[in-house]
Design goal:
The chain is an all-alpha fold and 100 residues long. Helices cover 75% and strands 0% of the residues. The chain is built from five helices and no strands. It has helices at 2-21, 35-47, 53-60, 65-81, 83-99. Helix 1 (2-21) packs antiparallel against helix 2 (35-47), helix 1 crosses helix 5 (83-99) and helix 4 packs across helix 5 (83-99). The longest helix is centred in the first third of the chain and has 20 residues, at 2-21. The radius of gyration is 13 Å and the shape is globular. The two termini are 16 Å apart.
């Protein structure tokens, strides 16, 4: 059941970011091209415990823990110093909480 819940949250995060960027699910890799969206993705994945390497490999070609950890570390740093990233995170968090 825990994996199922994680999968639903992962999909909600992906759906939210696609909607924000105005892209289709098939164009998901474009999220990584926008630095702020990329950071937001990793922050949300961590918050909702959705760091599934299998899904990230399929959707974003992130195929190892080192890449994942590096991206997460950068995202956490940006969260602390970039007001826009913080605002985007809290707004996305509110939207995800409303959807549940």
């Amino acid at each position: 059941m825990k994996y199922f819940n994680r999968s639903i949250k992962y999909e909600k995060i992906i759906e939210l970011l696609c909607s924000y960027k105005g892209i289709k699910r098939e164009e998901l890799i474009r999220i990584l091209e926008d630095e702020e969206c990329k950071y937001l993705l990793f922050l949300l994945l961590k918050k909702y415990n959705c760091m599934d390497i299998e899904s990230l490999t399929k959707d974003f070609e992130i195929d190892n823990k080192r890449k994942l950890n590096n991206n997460l570390k950068k995202a956490e740093e940006k969260f602390l110093i970039n007001k826009k990233v913080r605002e985007m995170f809290f707004e996305a968090e509110n939207i995800i909480e409303e959807i549940q």
